[in-house]
Records
---
Amino acid sequence: MTAPRELRHGAGPGLDALDHAILKVLHRDPRAPFAEVAAAVGAHERTVARRLERMTADGRVAFVAALVPEYQYEGVTAEVAVRCAPGRVHEVALTLAALEETRSVEVATGALDVFVELHAPGHDALLTLVDTAIGRLDGVVDIHSAVVLRLLLTASDWAPYDDEPTDVRRHAVEGTTLPEPPVVDELDRRLVELLRRDARMSTTRLARELSVGETTARRRLARLMDSHVLHLRLHADPAVLGYPVEARFRLGVPHRELAQAIRLLAREPALRHLVVTSGGTSLLGYSSHRDTRDFQEFATRVFARLEGVTSTETALLMRTYKRAGFASGGGEGARARGPAGG
């Protein structure tokens, strides 16, 4: 697997070397104490705290904590492409981003104007959401939906600072099955809700808020963090980290070639999201790049290696309205329902 380059060139807007050094440590451990981060980057604790506060206050960086329903076999996730009437794209995208059920909303090049990832409790709820909440919006001309059958990679598996793949990506590369997820009970869900409000909340405070002993809180947190069902991560738009070009692709892959295609795609560090969907195209993915030349090289090299591909559709994202459950800008405009997308 080719290792991603550390961010030395093409740094994100307004971030310097120290900012990136701080983000590198927090990318690996979002709950790392300031003293540990400061020691790793060679700066004072107060400097680290001020830098992080500045990056979170202006929305460039946020912390995401959520259980991944796909890994718990809960509800149904769908990828929806919405074609809009001319002049209505922005209005429709804003309305879709405001829906609690949507995780990501973006506008991309191509015939279909707005792409949406959403999660619903079940297929009946999905039908109602697509037909009513989306289908009846002024400006919506056409809708195409596909159900996510298998979640392979998420933004938590995109590691621009690290050479080593995550455990989830390693399983995808090796073609092995993820371990069975742990059973999540009400105490676990309350713990995750506290982390959603403040991912860096101390274990002492977590225990106090949960009315349990600190040992219990620490053990529960460690069990969840060691599994793939909890995504607790540093969140930043790829552009902030120096990857301003984002691409979306759909590939038609016969079932007999699907496993090999997944293994080959998962080896690519640029890939930050990959799912198997229903419908005429089997694979849907997102990738992040430093520039359009980087994307063109990626598409030419990677897609040419895939056997049996019957169709290829690529689009570049022009604007993101919602990502990982957060409205554009990363503020409090939307709650993080789940981190699978974006």
---
Amino acid sequence: MSEPSWHEKLVGGFRRTSDRLGDNLSGLFTKATLDRQTLDDIEEALIASDLGPATAARIRETLGDARYERGLDEAGVRQVVADEIATILARVAKPLEIEAFPRPQVILVIGVNGSGKTTTIAKLAHLLQEQDYEVMLVAGDTFRAAAIGQLKVWAERLNVPIIAGKEGGDAASLVFEGVKQGTARGTDVLIVDTAGRLQNKAGLMDELSKIRRVLGRLNPAAPHDVLLVLDATTGQNALSQIEVFSASAGVTGLVMTKLDGSAKGGVLVAAAEKYGMPIHAIGVGETIGDLRPFDPNEVARAIAGVEPLASSRNPA
């Protein structure tokens, strides 16, 4: 059996959201017109599908437009949902640009333990390698020996250098060494793992502030990116993580992981609508190549359960 294409994985990743939307919309189209009650019911169905109240209200307003006064069937509503989601996502779908000079571009990766942060770092490194960038890793989550060990394994598999120390070591010192070695080697990108201690905001802020001060001595522009990794299976809880980490860590962009069919994928749309932060990539599987920048139209159609555009059906 051949490996599923990216599009097939994408559709599978949003299957739960698409099916849930269909279940919630089912039975709402028994009337000839979209009256106020039906529009209210559709809005509630969209909120129940994890798309968020702002997105649901926006779609309801569109459906209430005079051009739909004769009504729509479920397929027609799904198409409107896809169009509105695509508009929302188009504003935030921004591949990560490696443009720092002098090199390296320093990327801090943050997120709660269990979000898939360390694995996402490996997948991001692989994605950048595919674009012919030289990558180095820093095992800055020194509070967990498992995180250090896991990142070392990935570095070996990817054949990239890694700066790592012992559990309990000073993360800022490791970052300093990473920038120094990366600069000497001409490395393009330095990806830094960090501790995911959401329950201790003060400690997290202090540690990140120390890392920033150390970076400033070597490269005043660093860190160039602060990426927050979000676990899509947590649904609306991911939004509260954006709130906390944005306040404590200066998040510049998002990566959504674990869009594997069990995920509440509508939260991707809710995050885009509420925060407007760049979403650099999404992860739809477990293999090293399953993290990719995304096409807003393709994702929107997968969420809404609408047939893909012809150009999206059989991508590599």
---
Amino acid sequence: MSIQIQDNKSLKPFNTFGMNVQARHFVTVSGSEEVRASLQWATGKGVSSFILGGGSNILFTKDVDGLVIQNSIMGIEKIYEDEEYVHLKVGGGEVWHQFVLYCLDHNYAGVENLALIPGLVGASPMQNIGAYGIEIKEVFHELTAIHRATLEEVKFSNRDCEFGYRESVFKHQYKDQFFITDVTYKLSKKPAFKVEYGAIKQELEKAGVQELSIRAIADAVIAIRSSKLPDPKEIGNAGSFFKNPSVSKEQFEILKLKFPEIVAYENPDHTMKLAAGWLIEQAGLKGFRKGDAGVHARQALVLVNYGNASGAEILDTCRLVQNAVQERFDVQLSPEVNIV
């Protein structure tokens, strides 16, 4: 199996923060055998391997001293269909939003609320991506992954993935152990619309939508996200930098007494999920800027690189935000973005 290893490759085009870091070695893979060959090459050379997807959920703070393997495994294949559902097996290198558009074109429901989320399909189960009342775990069927040490192919079911809020088994006990080659989703041919979250209803009304459809919902989500989130092609960013934190009901009641306008939603386990963006804004940091690193002026959840900020400067901004929110609300914010 012939693979094309490049040396001293700039990763600036491969991460949405636009960090100009170098990969000591770099390879793009388009199939399972190329994945195995790349992992074997790294082992043979005695260097580490680093898996890179769309680069939309990562903050590089330094060069990568090893082999960066970029996932470019493509393809969408229907593997099962009945009257109610269709199962689509999707290459891990497919762009997530393009997959959503494919589902809209074929009238397959379940991912319309997840339109315009950046990144690749292979990353979707890793952090159980979610937005506007939907999480991947609701449409996930199974995935195929290659163990990076043994090179064995392993299947993971929904239960195996142990999905939680922006969590999965791949962020904990299996962190950095697998390369996800494909993901199979179970999509519905009979849509159940979810429009209660965020500003979807208002956006649908504004657009004059008379009859609900998955495309109308996707269009509303795209309009909302486009109005609030900066385009990485214009301003370097990785979308929402922080997870929405959860607190006990008791702590929430204490916070509500002090801050009556606090925004929260009840979790299935009866804890309360707070809106991290609101907390950051109330801490006075919306629009904060120091040099080329800052907090976005329209969406406080988003940290931005206005041009030439370093990863270390973005990380300093992250810590500044965490400290300010902790001091004002006694609530700890955790990054959603992977910091390398």
